[in-house]
């Protein structure tokens, strides 16, 4: 049986990069940048006033209270006047271009206007209240690095730079197939039936990552529905097929043999982890990677967080995610020889240091502890004094 590290290395080797495509800024939110963005201009692109007041040609040194200047005119935001030759002051609005040779802006509330002249009411520093060209970013500098997820802040910057089209990583096409004759949608349940929670969970996590989701399928444990669902996913160009259930060793655990019959090459089956030990990975040589997750909800969550998420990162060309090392507040019993994944909470202690505690009453079928956690905690064989902490949502990881 493979260790977690061995299984993950096998998967990452099989996660083929997806390539890039060009999209408009208006539809880029949530996408991953496929190339560095170089700033086409400086921000600000010209010296401008940081507040309403008077632009002054001060000359040398600071400006003492009582200094009087003749006001040449008004410089408003958007005006293209580059200079006021022969003048030492002009009224100026916030964001307006500072005329050539003017080097200081004095706030209007610290000036006394009298007709066409203005007098300073207090000492003022030379060079103050001007936003300098390139003070935010210089032309030619890297504005955003490849691999950055495009959020609202990135869109603000790109829009300010006048960029309306950019290179992004192609979204992975992912198919989800939930197996189980007992699974039903919401609504009244028949005897022996349960609501399907794994499918909606995986759909939500795929949406968080920003994949191109193919129609999700729910299939029974008998018949040809699974074969048809896999065939449809391959025909639709899936990069990754996620299945849940039917990967263990029972009579109805048909997924391994079904994939083999369809020509998939098994990469591994069963990994020394808890929960989620029966996990299966396979590859269609002319098509998608397949990850078969166990059916218990928290085993599905572990499979997604620690197998699916690294595969999606590798497909996007991102480096491996790194956990945060945190101190555990108290010992947690773990079975030797397994990589353990536990739900927990990470919070600062009285001295401001990050400390982790394991959620109690955890089990592969219990969902409530998942809703109360804010991190995954991982340890090899035993939970010692220090553990690895991972964000619950891998899309939120750096």
Automatic annotation (TrEMBL):
Pfam family, one: MoCF_biosynth
Span of the signal peptide: none
Reactions it catalyzes: adenylyl-molybdopterin + molybdate = Mo-molybdopterin + AMP + H(+)
Pathway: Cofactor biosynthesis; molybdopterin biosynthesis
Gene3D superfamilies listed in its UniProt record: MoaB/Mog-like domain (3.40.980.10), MoeA, C-terminal, domain IV (2.40.340.10), Molybdopterin biosynthesis moea protein, domain 2 (3.90.105.10), Molybdopterin biosynthesis moea protein, domain 3 (2.170.190.11)
InterPro entries on file: MoaB/Mog-like_dom_sf, MoaB/Mog_dom, MoeA-like, MoeA_C_domain_IV_sf, MoeA_linker/N, MoeA_linker/N_sf
Keywords on record: Magnesium, Metal-binding, Molybdenum, Molybdenum cofactor biosynthesis, Transferase
TM segment ranges: none
SMART domains referenced in this protein's UniProt entry, alphabetically: MoCF_biosynth
Superkingdom of origin: Bacteria
CDD domains referenced in this protein's UniProt entry, alphabetically: MoeA (cd00887)
EC number: 2.10.1.1
Record-level GO BP terms: Mo-molybdopterin cofactor biosynthetic process
Cofactor(s) listed: Mg(2+)
Reported function: Catalyzes the insertion of molybdate into adenylated molybdopterin with the concomitant release of AMP.
PANTHER family xrefs: GEPHYRIN, MOLYBDOPTERIN BIOSYNTHESIS PROTEIN
UniProt record similarity statement: Belongs to the MoeA family.
Protein name, entry field: Molybdopterin molybdenumtransferase
Organism of provenance: Luteibacter pinisoli
